[in-house]
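Saturday, quiet lab. Running sequence design on the structure tokens for the scaffold JK sent over.
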């Protein structure tokens, strides 16, 4: 899963050495990556997924307006159709907006086929 964000100013990390790094991986280490990959391979949402944070304007300033920045966040170990949650915090089977249960209706809105509710998403 990847999320793109436009920022009004450059991102400032708690550790300033990361301010000029174009791609940062946030992880508890190699064993954490191994565990997250193992959980995702079993269709389980990892308890501590590896997070990649890209700051493309660091390499190419034309990718963001003057004074602004662009950030993309990617969860590297995200199962296509989650069957469970390793952290035990989500009931994946009945979660509203579950990706595998969302279907686009003829009017362009999104319908959660797992329930009778409708979810509208920005176009």
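Result came back. Writing it out in full:
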């Amino acid at each position: 899963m990847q999320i793109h964000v436009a920022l009004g100013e450059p991102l400032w990390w708690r550790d300033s050495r990361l301010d000029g790094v174009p791609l940062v991986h946030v992880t508890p280490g190699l064993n954490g990556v191994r565990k997250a990959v193992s959980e995702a391979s079993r269709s389980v949402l990892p308890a501590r997924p590896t997070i990649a944070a890209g700051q493309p304007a660091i390499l190419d300033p034309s990718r963001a307006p003057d004074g602004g920045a662009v950030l993309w966040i990617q969860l590297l170990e995200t199962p296509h159709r989650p069957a469970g949650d390793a952290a035990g915090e989500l009931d994946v089977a009945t979660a509203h907006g579950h990706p595998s249960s969302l279907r686009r209706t003829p009017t362009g809105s999104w319908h959660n086929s797992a329930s009778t509710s409708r979810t509208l998403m920005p176009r």
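Notes for JK: The longest strand covers residues 69-75. Residues 94-123 form one domain. Ask whether to fix the surface positions before the next round.
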